[in-house]
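Known limitations

Structure tokens in this collection are predictions and should be treated as such. Users comparing against experimental data should check residue numbering before alignment. To illustrate the layout, the record for DNA-processing protein DprA is reproduced below. The input appears on top and the generated tokens appear beneath it.
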Amino acid sequence: MTPAELAAWLRLTESVGPQAARRLLAMAGSAEAVFQLPAAALDQALPPKQRSVFNQPPEHLAELIDKAQAWLAEPGHTLMALGDPDYPSQLLATADPPLLLWLQGRHELLTTPSLAVVGSRNPTAQGGDNARAFAEALARAGYTIVSGLALGVDAAAHEGALDAGGATIAVVGTGLDQVYPRRNAGLAVRLLAAGGLILSEYSLGTPVLPANFPKRNRLIAGLSQGCLVVEAAVQSGSLITARLAVEAGREVFAIPGSIHSPQARGCHALIRQGAKLVESAQDVLEELSGVTPAAAPEITETPHEQQALLDAMGFDPVSLDALMARSGWPAAELSAALLELELDGEVARLAGQLFQRRGKG
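Generated tokens:
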């Protein structure tokens, strides 16, 4: 992209909304040519208030151009415009393709088979385990894992893909000159070092704005062949991603959970609406590509008494008192056994003095 093209694209994206910009591009053929359109064409494409804004370059445009040029000079930094030969075809087929894609990392991942893995920012211990295990298995099968670099399920999904030595794409809701949330800065560094990709449609300097995160979810859905929802409350951004995936003609998968868990209700709602219930990564793979089931992993034996306690727990959160009643174990002995199981990764301690058994992938 030449300096003149960069300036034109940045001015266009900062002056009008995406729909108006696409109308202007269709009329002019390029971002530079947009600013050569006759007044009559602009009057046809833009309402009067937007027309007056368009005529005046934004005050911060020169600063933004300088910042973009410096950023693009760094290795691995790319800016892709709508209409570029390398622009992802799957995004072009969506209702609202971004005008610009800011890319940091290996942009070739945009052409690979991809799956979105999304869910709660505050998952249960089992939900985090499931996100990591599903992403790891799907990445080993050759899928690039797409998620949003948020806390919770998103982070676990990226980590699972990286643990498998696979590829992952993070679609973020800020400019790429910052990482949000800051707690995931180390994960972002690891992702890039492993040959992953971080992507945004927002210009450098775009701060954390709540409205941008639901909007970026359409890119997570649009880049992927399918969308797996691990855990989600009924009012959840993950359900927005699932709806956008359906609108884009993608498959939607949901992992069921406990009927007592608020974090499972969003997945149950999706299943009632037609999402495919999945219990293993193999279910996803078979639905998408008809692959044959892999050999079952070797299972490590659990001592008989511990297994009896796990069986008494079930998979729903349970209090110490309820578990004492089910198992007949005295409180001191039961607490010691739960601590041992917790250290072995078999049981998670939840808020409210609850315990939950953790499935093994």
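For this record: The chain has three domains: 1-69, 108-289, 304-357. Residues 290-301 have pLDDT under 50 and may be disordered. Please report discrepancies through the issue tracker.
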